[in-house]
Design goal:
CATH architecture: Alpha/alpha barrel
Distance between the termini: 23 Å
Oligomer: single chain
Strand content: 5-15%
Number of helices: 13
Shape: globular
Number of strands: 18
Structural class: alpha+beta
Length: 423
């Protein structure tokens, strides 16, 4: 399985027309990300920082207030996306600040020294050159409250931290970025590799320190993240084992492709072997197409299945037959269509543009609430993972990536002279 040049084969694309909605989105989403950096910087222009994933400034009817457990919380996935999007916006200095914070998180975990990164940290400037785990003081209970998911480590978030460092290292090379990337990928290999067929990488570790439990399910989304990050890192030749890691992860994704239905399975159940045949997540359908490893043109047929099963009006929802529009996923669809087809529909750009909040970020959904059909963690009573109409860093970053035509899996926009897949 050749993975030495895992590049996304874009259809060469003419620049968006001057004054188009896509161009407007590129300007406004980049402005929103810069404003988010300025908000968290407090006048400091170079110190490492992490951005809050959600920031509400006015209450919207029918939408709950931001829970204390989410206030001033920087999710690693959202910050990795924001850093990559800031590169696409031409703001390498701000992207480096987020990357520097990720490196410090790898180097200075409060409990572990194995190269992991947590799912979330406290947002803001890093005090004492290290990040702080998220949580808040509940005066009514006279107790410090933390969130089990936030202090845990999901495999996909580790891979996205590596993708951020790879993107930034391409623009501003540093041995610290390369070293931290190697440690993150090594943690994935040592702590989540599962040889239970289908061979691949499991979901991570969940729970409080010293009591964490392995998440034994495997995710298509996580494994495409690992495949792309490991293949990119392997091209340096410093860690030859990363080439095999990329091959293992990609092989799992290949096994999740349902040729008959022309779509991806979301992954496996908790036994790590039984394929989840009914549920679907939009990102698990789109990211393999956006990553587009060579020799996988047949996956593009999945666009028709996505339209039939995830479409909601002019946009797309998270789950199969969704109950509303997921802004982040709709932006992922736009990014994928730009990469695969060379353009996204004008109606999709207009939908995304309509989600802009007064603070410059974009709402996670136009609806008061949408469901994903997924549980936050193993201690959830049911599918309790929802998106609300809150201004969201991750949605803003994906809009910027789509509008700028930047592929986070490869760190490039177009491949000059590349032969696109034939449709």
């Amino acid at each position: 399985m050749a993975l030495t040049a895992m590049l996304c084969l874009h259809v060469p694309q003419a620049p968006a027309a001057e004054g188009s909605v896509q161009q407007l989105l590129a300007r406004q989403s980049c402005d929103g990300l810069r404003r988010a950096v300025a908000f968290s910087s407090r006048g400091e222009s170079s110190a490492p920082l992490l951005l809050p994933s959600y920031r509400t400034e006015a209450q919207i009817d029918g939408v709950p207030e931001l829970a204390p457990s989410l206030a001033n919380v920087a999710f690693v996935y959202d910050n990795a996306l924001a850093g990559i999007a800031l590169l696409a916006c031409g703001d390498t200095a701000s992207a480096k600040r987020i990357a520097d914070a990720m490196v410090l998180a790898v180097e200075h975990d409060p409990h572990y020294s194995d190269g992991r990164i947590r799912n979330a940290y406290r947002a803001g400037l890093l005090a004492d050159a290290k990040p702080v785990l998220s949580g808040y003081w509940d005066a009514s209970r006279n107790q410090w409250i933390a969130d089990a998911y936030q202090v845990s480590t999901a495999t996909g978030n580790v891979a996205w931290a590596a993708l951020l460092l790879l993107n930034v290292n391409q623009s501003a090379p540093s041995p610290r970025y390369a070293d931290a990337t190697a440690r993150l990928l090594a943690w994935i290999e040592q702590r989540t590799r599962s040889s239970v067929a289908p061979d691949g990488y499991s979901g991570g570790w969940y729970g409080w320190d010293d009591r964490q439990a392995a998440q034994t399910w495997k995710s298509t989304e996580h494994n495409i993240d690992i495949a792309m990050a490991a293949a990119w890192a392997a091209r340096s030749g410093t860690h030859p084992e990363q080439k095999q890691q990329a091959a293992t992860a990609l092989a799992f994704v290949e096994r999740m492709w349902n040729k008959g239905e022309q779509r991806f399975h979301i992954g496996t159940q908790a036994d790590g072997a039984s394929v989840s045949g009914t549920a679907s997540g939009l990102d698990a359908q789109l990211w393999p197409l956006l990553a587009a490893p060579p020799g996988h043109c047949a996956w593009q047929a999945g666009l028709a299945w996505i339209d039939a099963n995830h479409r909601y009006g002019a946009g797309y929802g998270f789950s199969r037959q969704p109950d509303g529009i997921w802004t982040e996923g709709s932006a992922q669809a736009a990014a994928t269509l730009v990469a695969v087809k060379g353009a996204a529909p004008e109606a999709l750009w207009q939908l995304l543009a309509a989600q802009r909040a007064p603070n410059g970020l974009y709402y996670a959904t136009p609806s008061p609430r949408i469901s994903t059909g997924l549980a936050i963690g193993p201690d959830s009573k049911g599918p309790d993972f929802f998106y609300y109409r809150w201004p969201h860093l991750g949605a803003t970053a994906w809009i910027a990536l789509a509008a700028k035509g930047w592929n986070p899996f490869t760190g490039i926009t177009t491949v000059a002279g590349a032969k696109p897949c034939s449709n």
